[in-house]
Amino acid sequence: MKLVFRAVAASFFVAVAIVLLSWTTYFAQFNSTAYDFTLRLAGPVSPVSPTLIVAVDESSLDRVGAWPWSRDKLARLIERIETGHPRVIAVDVLLDERKSENEDNALARSISGASAIVLATRIASVNGVDRWRRPNERFVQKHVRLGHVHADPDFDGISRRFLSAKISEGRAVRAFAREALRAAGLPENGAFEENAGSADIIRPQAVNIRFVGDNGSFRHVPAWKVLEGVVQPAEFKNQIVLVGSTAEGIDLDQWFTPFAVSGQKMSGIEIHANAIETLYTGRAIVEMPDLLVLLGLWGLVLLFWWVDRRFEGRRFYATALLSIPVSAALSWLLMKYDNVWLPFPPFLAAIVVVLPGLEVAKLVRLNRDLDGKIQRLTVAALYERRRSGSHPSPAQLETRRRILAEIPAGPDRDGWLTALDRYERESSAHDNNRQQLFGTHRHNSRWKLDAVDFFNEELMQFLSFNNAILASIEDVIIVSNAAGLVVYQNPAAKRLEGYSPEPPFAPDYFASLLDGRTFGPLFARVLSQMEPLTREFVPARNGRSFYNVTLSPIARAGVVLSMHDATAQHELNQAKSDMVSLVSHELRTPLTSIRGYSDMLLKYNLVQEKGKEFLTTIIDESGRLNQLIQSFLNIAYIESGRQKITKSKFEIAPVFKDMVSVLGPVAAEKQIAIDAPADVDTTHVLADRLLLYQALTNLLTNAIKYSPPGTTVRIGVANGDGRIRFQISDQGCGIPVDEASKIFEKFYRRANKETLQQSGFGLGLAFVKEVAIQHGGDVLVESKVGEGSVFTLWIPN
Ligand code: ADP
User: Fold this and answer.
1) Per residue in 576-613, pLDDT tens?
2) Does the beta carbon of 764 lie inside 6 Å of ligand 1?
3) What is the spatial distance between Cα 342 and Cα 31, in angstroms, rounded to a whole number?
4) What kind and span of H or E run contains 725?
5) For residue 355, what pLDDT is reported?
6) Would you say residue 389 has pLDDT above 60?
7) Would you say 307 and 316 are in contact if contact means Cβ atoms under 8 Å apart?
């Protein structure tokens, strides 16, 4: 907002300055030239007023004799014209001197015979005093009108306008053209006078002539043809007949006009004809008021400012340059069709001033911005220096001392010392640079560039250091942005089977590098919950290597996939499991024998009373051992992949019913209520029925085991988001957060009182987890110590 306000104010001042500039002489010259140019461009028009010029031209001089002619010739001319009944005869000849009695009489007679006649008068300076040069009194008869014939050229000698009236000796005289129109009884299309009660108020106004063209645009007849009767008097009927000289060199009444391209001046009489035409047609050229020009300029400068902000560069210049022909064309159109003069040079000046002005303003702003940025970075750089201090720093000296003391002499020690040397050299060179740069106080533009270079280099160093860190990591690191576009892969990634330099959609790429499992949902979860997720022992694409895979969020901007090679660990685990399952398997046969023989001993009463007690213990314990082996083998079976998952579609309600009927009595004994939904909506599920049943039973068993009497255990199921969630909640002892993930490990049992009171091997939940994973789902626990736990087992729908 502030910026816009400043631009509006600044452009206003620029516009005012240009308007003031346009008032100076030089600029006025420029404006006048543009005026003539535009008028010429608007082109000639054909005259429509009934104007006819009787011209004392070269041929008339040849024929009749040199100028001035005797007044009786002029008298004859007027008489001849009058016989044709013109509207008016306007004579542009100054008749102020006295000539011979006969001549003057003749002329006076002819004037009195003319029904409407206008004679010329002008102001002349006599001994420094302005006086009207009026015609001889004998000619200024009652019906004779006087009109001033001043052509009033501009400072450059070009006649563009006339004054509607001139005042001298306290007497106002209307322009010759105006008097001719008035005498002819024609309107003059313009308010030049006000009628204030008794007197007319005459305010001389400049009238810009709309020249119809160059010399010879009006109908004219040579004077000699009139004198000799070659021209029919009917020619003059109802005409405004102008009488005057057009011959060059007769007198000084010749002027340049905007149309004088040929370099020829125009005679005064033709200028009057143009003036009459202008008034008759109401085409006087109106000049655009300065206020409007100012507003236009203001708008243009603002427009430039906006265009510059919006389209900096070449497009801005193109637009700016385009405004030159546009303003000239606008000016031309206004002149041609509305007779309005819009001076376009100020607009050109605006372009000339504003273009470099905007550039300079931009430079200044840029510079200031740069200063600010350098200032901020400088503070950081100086802070850095204060931290690093002198070279080598005490810390480095200490390092050197310890290397020498602790590392035995040899290539290793030498290598470290060489690295230390190089590090010291580089950082001291860097510090010297910094010192040189920030030690001076002369901050010219060279210095600014150097400073930018320095920061640039520092940034590059920082980046390459970071790059080197990432490159030296053995783990695979792949970074994707939030759009799923892979933006970085470290060198370790390049060694992967399936590596692509231009990978597809990131989750698909992850899947293709690993065992093909879907990564989309994990990706989504990491991005939305902003918490890392880990999957252990994920087989690689080749099936031989295994990775611990972690997806971590980079705020909400992306996801980092890191893959740690866990093949060795996986093999070890595998070997351990194989070993245990082998041993377990082998244990079953002897165990069966022990149990079988013990049973027989008891059955056939082969031992004494005391021995029977021992036998019962042996049987109980071997039963427990058998159970342990069975549970373990169950898991090992699934894990090894030897147990095939056979999925089928079945209803859930019967599963719940079976569970409750088996475990109900156990719960009842412990005074625990089982709250199963009365009518489970008949949701179907696609799963291995037996495994799912066992897993849910394990969860329910635990809930009963780890809850005190008088509490309730709830089972439920929900369907949504493409998942079926089984939930078993209890009001038991609960599990602390740090153990929540461990309880799913094999043989993990908590060491709390409640657990110790219960028998178990720590295999129940491991089994549940394995079942969930084999179905493509998972099992989670939410719990609060002392309040209870909620186990959720979900599988895809
Ligand atoms: P166990 O044979 O010990 O029950 P599990 O694998 O089923 O083995 O459970 C592992 C451990 O998790 C248990 O020893 C117990 O400490 C804890 N646990 C399991 N279920 C619950 C529960 N519902 N409430 C509290 N603790 C539980």
Assistant:
1) 778 877 877 788 888 889 989 999 988 888 888 888 88
2) yes
3) 10
4) strand 723-729
5) 87
6) no
7) yes
User: Among 749, 785, 787, which is best to mutate for testing ligand 1, by the most ligand atoms less than 8 A from CB?
Assistant: 749
Length of the chain counted residue by residue? 797
- Residue range 64-75: average pLDDT? 88
Phi, psi of 393 (to 5 degrees): -70, 165
Q: How far apart are CA 59 and CA 175, in angstroms?
A: 29
CA distances from 86 to 80, 81, 238, 389, 701 (A): 11, 7, 4, 109, 132
For 194-217, the pLDDT digits (tens) are 776 666 777 888 999 999 998 889
DSSP label at residue 709: T
pTM of the entire predicted model: 0.57
* pLDDT band (50, 70, 90) for residue 189: confident
DSSP string, 532-569: -EEEEEEEBTTSS-EEEEEEEEETTTEEEEEEEE-HHH
Query: DSSP of 224-260, one letter per residue?
Result: HHHHTT-S-GGGGTT-EEEEEE-STTSSS-EEB-TTG
Q: How far away, in angstroms, is 776 Cα from ligand 1 center?
A: 23
Report d(CA 328, CA 343) in Å as an integer.
9
Strand partners, 729: 714, 790
Q: Which residues contact 328 (CB under 8 A, 6 or more apart)?
A: 38, 344
Half-sphere exposure of 220 (CA within 13 A, CB side): 24
Specify whether the CB–CB gap between 682 and 653 falls below 8 A.
yes
**For ligand 1, mutation pick of 755, 780, 793 (most atoms within 8 Å of CB):** 755
Q: Are strands 206-208 and 165-168 parallel, antiparallel or unpaired?
A: unpaired
The answer to whether residues 707 and 672 touch, using CB atoms and an 8 Å cutoff, is yes
The tokens for 385 are 């220096």
Question: For the CA atoms of the chain, what is the radius of gyration?
Answer: 57
The CB of 173 under 6 Å from ligand 1? The reply is: no
